[in-house]
Amino acid sequence: xxxxRSPRFVACCALAASAALLLSSCGSDNKFPxxxxxxxxxxxxxxxxxxxxxxxxxxxxxxxxxRPVAYTDKEGNFKLTxxxxxxxxxxxxxKLTVMMRPNDGEGGDQPTSKxxxxxxxxxxxxTPLKATVKPGDNVLETVNVN
Length: 146
What we know:
By secondary structure, this protein is of the alpha+beta class. It has a domain at 34-135: Immunoglobulin-like (Sandwich). It contains 2 helices and 11 strands. It has helices spanning 7-24, 111-116; strands at 34-35, 37-43, 46-47, 51-57, 69-71, 77-79, 89-90, 92-100, 130-133, 138-139, 143-145. The strands form 3 sheets. Strands 2, 3, 6, 10 and 11 form a 5-stranded mixed sheet that branches. It has a 4-stranded antiparallel sheet with strand order 5-4-8-9, with no helix packed on it. Strand 2 (37-43) and strand 3 (46-47) form a beta hairpin. It starts with 6 loop residues before the first helix and ends with a strand.
């Protein structure tokens, strides 16, 4: 019987699979137009570097492999990437997830991450966070997770 996997490990695997799909679609002509998206994430009121933001489209039938992602800088700022660095995201409605970047030695459970960001923000089916991307520049409201 295989060992049980933690929710964080499963989420990281899903994100890795999304990244692989993203990279495999880079040479494709089936790209959707993207629009610049930036924002800021605070964790318990503090800016942290290496917080991962991902958008999960509500219209999954249309956006099968597009999962815009970004990592925060030390001030908590980010710019989303879908196909190439900083290009933004396709127009649409999204669930927004927030999680800590895996650190060496934390493995799949990431105990320090659990203490910093509530798990509900790391999963598309439980996050209360939403984002809308419209044509043109998009600056999302500051997100404060705890």
